[in-house]
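job 3f2a | input accepted
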Amino acid sequence: MIGMHPLILFDTIMIETPRRRIYRRLGYRKGVTTLRARQEAEVEKDIACALSLIRLRGVGLRLSLGEKNDSEVVLAGQEGDEVFRSRRLARFLKECGEVVLMGATAGGKVMAAIEEGATRDNFSRSVVFDATASEMVDASLDWIMSYFARELRRESKILTEKRFSAGYSDFLLENQAAMFRLLDMERIGVEITQSFVLIPEKSVTALAGVQGK
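job 3f2a | predicted structure (213 res):
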């Protein structure tokens, strides 16, 4: 049995701004979409403003996998086993002995600014803020995965390149409640609604598999 690993809190995540991904989310395609200098300057100004409001925080947790079959996987948590029922997830973790759960948030300030912009009919700025926050929090999961991948290499183990999130395919969104609890996401200022939506909105959870003995 693999030993229990502690929850890791990433109180401040510093990453490069994924500008290409932000522009792609905004609908711009290099070599396809023409962006005038004045338009680009306005977008860059809004991106910079959004970044000033974003505070990336995250958590990560390694857990052992218990019994697996074609339709469910069992995670060995500190307070007892957690069963996830999903054929796609079971297939994704077929060759894995552990999982890494991860969560991240962009914080509440940027979400408040997005909502304020929408109510004031400043939709274009809100769209840029939304795209920036979405891509920044997604990139923070990449950063967390890179952290665990480095740690696992010391043990001759490999972290899967892809990750799996609740709400994808047959891995129902309701499973986010268990991930939220296991990750103790309240520590990074995140709450969850009765419909399993994370608050602030620009908050995410995911899991990746660990391969190797």
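job 3f2a | The helical segments are 19-25, 37-53, 87-92, 108-119, 123-153, 176-183.
job 3f2a | closed
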